[in-house]
C-alpha cells in the first residue's frame, strides 16, 4: 500500500492482488450505492418541485400571471398526487431568458406584425401605381366594358338594316361572305374598342 500511496510502480502479482481487493470491496458497496442513488434521486426530484403557482412566482420574483403565461408558452410542469407542480430548473430557465428568447407568443406577434406591414406596403404600392395610371380601378374597368358591350350590341342590332341593301341580288355564298366580313368587323371593333 505504501508503494501505491507513493506512486511507485507495482509488480504483476501486486497488481493482481490490488485488483482482487478492489473487486471485493466494490461488491457490497454496489447494492448500497443503488439504494442511495434511488434515495438521492428522489430527494433531488423533491427539491426541484414547487407545489403552488404562488410559490413558483415568489421563487422567480414574478407574479402568478407570468407563471401562467410561461405555461402557455411551453414551460414544462409535472404532476404530483393529481396536482400540477412546477419544476425549479424550468422556472429558472424562463426567468433568465425572459425578454431575450423568442417565445411562441412573441413569434406569433412578430409574424402577424410582419404580415400587417407587408399588406400595408402592398396597398401603398398599388395606390402609387394607380396614381401613375399603371393600374385601372375596377369601377373604371367595368364602365369601359359596359360601353364596349353597348356599342357592339347596337352594331349587331343595326346589322340587318345595314346588310339588306348590300345583300340584294347576291348569291347565297356571296351573302354569307358579306355577313361574315361585317361580323368580323364588329368583333374586331369590340376587341380594340377604346373609351373616348
Number of domains: 4
Name the shape in a single word: elongated
Uncertain stretches of 5 or more adjacent residues = none
Give me the strand/helix succession.
HHEHHEEHHHH
Q: Largest sheet at a glance?
A: 3 strands, antiparallel
Query: Helical residue percent?
Result: over 70%
Count, helices: 8
Tell me the structural class: mainly alpha
Distance between the termini: 115 Å
Note down, in words, how this protein is organized.
There is one protein chain. Helix 3 crosses helix 4 (64-72) and helix 7 (138-167) packs antiparallel against helix 8 (172-191). Strand 2 and strand 3 (83-87) form a beta hairpin. This protein is elongated. The protein has helices at 2-5, 12-48, 53-60, 64-72, 88-97, 104-131, 138-167, 172-191; strands spanning 49-50, 77-80, 83-87. The chain is mostly helical and 196 residues long. The N and C termini lie far apart (115 Å). The protein folds into 4 domains: 1-47, no CATH class; 51-101; 102-135; 138-191, no CATH class. It contains 8 helices and 3 strands. Helix content is 74%, strand content 6%. A 3-stranded antiparallel beta sheet has the order 1-3-2.
Name the descriptors.
196 residues, mainly alpha, three-stranded antiparallel beta sheet, 8 helices, elongated
Provide a compact summary of the structure:
The chain has about 200 residues and is mainly alpha-helical. The chain is about 75% helix and about 5% strand.
Task: Give the SSE layout.
Blueprint: H1 2-5, H2 12-48, E1 49-50, H3 53-60, H4 64-72, E2 77-80, E3 83-87, H5 88-97, H6 104-131, H7 138-167, H8 172-191
Antiparallel strand pairs: 1-3, 2-3
